[in-house]
């Protein structure tokens, strides 16, 4: 879905409607995925996060 037409406020309201349990499940899935990445890829991602 393309939500490019939404205002920042509308976007936040839409995100707030997502149940906390669903958000935590997504975060856990992302964490597990990141743990499976090769070490070099994780290091590059870490550098990118620090630079922004």
Compact overview of the structure:
This protein has helices at residues 8-16, 20-36, 39-51. The protein has 52 residues and is mainly α.
Number of helices: 3
Structural class: mainly alpha
Unreliable parts:
none
* Separation of the first and last Cα atoms: 27 Å
What portion of the residues fall into strands of 2 or more residues? under 5%
Number of strands: 0
Overall pLDDT confidence: 88
Oligomeric state of shown chains: single chain
Radius of gyration: 15 Å
Percentage of residues in helical conformation: over 70%
Largest sheet data? none
Overall body shape: flat
Instruction: Write down the secondary-structure element order.
Output: HHH
Note down, in words, how this protein is organized:
There is one protein chain. The chain is built from three helices and no strands. The radius of gyration is 15 Å and the shape is flat. It starts with 7 loop residues before the first helix and ends with a helix.
